[in-house]
Amino acid sequence: HPRCLSNKIKISEPTRHVVLIPPILTKPNFTPPPQNLNQPPTMGVVEEAHNVKILGSGHRTIVLAHGFGTDQSVWKHLVPHLVEDYKVVLYDNMGAGTTNPEYFDFERYATLEGYAYDVIGILEELRVSSCIFVGHSVSAMIGAVASITRPDLFSKIVMISASPRYLNDVDYFGGFEREDLDQLFEAIQSNFKAWCSGFAPLAIGGDMDSVSVQEFSRTLFNMRPDIALSVAQTIFQSDMRELLCHVLVPCHIIQSMKDLAVPVVVSEYLHQNLGGESIVEVMSTEGHLPQLSSPDVVVPVLLRHIRCDIAV
């Protein structure tokens, strides 16, 4: 594949925290979901739990990982453009409305490491030796965490609408104050359906009549309310900044010009602090789920970043 993406943003040497020992992820205890002994196992336990689907028959593997409140259907506009040239792996994060809520371990998924080990587990079960990982929102960070433990499994990570921290901090603008998050969690807890109806158009950047808002509302409301609250708390209170320097695989950072959850400066922050090569592309789109709301703009951009490497 040609190395055809020039790194247009100059990388200045960022000030980094001194980390004497690279963070080592502790593998959480995980009891796999029980198998139905009356039927022969046609797919692995991890595959089945995550509704893994494999499409296409190319030599290179692409993994598409969705974000909060969606499932693998969020990739419906992109998949048809990939299946002729790649083997495409789709899966659902545990906690998505399409997964069995009984398999959701609140302790395991209180940190992103639990999800990262799911990704590694899926790749190992499928015997994928290396993949292009396309992660939306929290899954971009999940892929990054997984790549620290198993860099051999990732040839590159394409990050869409990604953030290492949502809370503002000293010398860091994540977009949210603590009061904002408290109100968010309270709204989810008090009336989940009403919150979904209000949050979907804000996240998408459209009105309730748009197809993409209706689609996001559907997948969001499919989540069990207590699981949705737990996942939202894990995501919005996460802070992955000190891990970024340990992410050594190439990262392609893509985001909308206007995003409720991720200010543009966050993409610049990722670019400056990731440990490996990275490139940023800010699209003229609006919303946190541009692959769903603006596929005509986003799909060509994603295909370019998937097919081309960063020119060093």
From TrEMBL:
One short Pfam family name for this protein? Abhydrolase_1
Cited InterPro entries = AB_hydrolase_1, AB_hydrolase_fold
Q: Which UniProt keywords apply?
A: Hydrolase
Listed GO MF terms: hydrolase activity; protein tag activity
The processes (GO biological process) annotated in the record are: de-etiolation; response to karrikin
Q: Does the keyword Hydrolase apply?
A: yes
Q: Which residues form the AB hydrolase-1 domain?
A: 61-294
Organism superkingdom = Eukaryota
Which PANTHER family did the record assign?
A: ESTERASE-RELATED
Give the UniProt family note: Belongs to the AB hydrolase superfamily.
Q: What is this protein called?
A: AB hydrolase-1 domain-containing protein
What is the source species? Cynara cardunculus var. scolymus
